Amino acid sequence: MGIDKRRARKSAFRIPEATLFSVAIIGGALGSTIGMFFFKHKTKHWYFKFGLPLIFLIQIVIIVVLFFLPLEIRFI
């Protein structure tokens, strides 16, 4: 978010929004959300303002479910 904010100020080549969301989906939702509010970047877009925290909550739910599921992985 900080790099894209700096590029926006300089009118340089920007990071696509799809890339920012992709980083959040593959595990960077917490960092993306913190960066969004710290750098005040993309906070006016509702899909970033609510989407990134939602992705983070979904990731937390997945981690909790996987932790408490009675699954056992064995390598032979």
What characterizes the major β-sheet?
A: none
Distance between the first and last residues' Cα = 44 Å
Cα Rg: 16 Å
How many separate domains? 1
Beta-strand residue percentage: under 5%
Number of helices: 4
- The number of distinct β-strands equals 0
Low-confidence stretches: none
Order of helices and strands: HHHH
User: What level of helicity do the residues show?
Assistant: 55-70%
> Which secondary-structure class do the elements indicate?
mainly alpha
Q: Please tell me what the overall shape is.
A: elongated
Q: Roughly what is the average pLDDT, rounded to an integer?
A: 91
What descriptors fit this protein?
single chain; elongated; mainly alpha; 76 residues
Indicate the topology:
Blueprint: H1 2-9, H2 17-38, H3 46-49, H4 51-68
Report on the structure:
The structure is a single chain. With 76 residues, this protein is mainly alpha-helical. It has one domain. 68% of the residues lie in helices and 0% in strands. The chain contains 4 helices and no strands. The protein has helices spanning 2-9, 17-38, 46-49, 51-68. Helix 2 crosses helix 4.
Sum this structure up briefly.
With 76 residues, the chain is mainly α. The chain contains four helices and no strands.
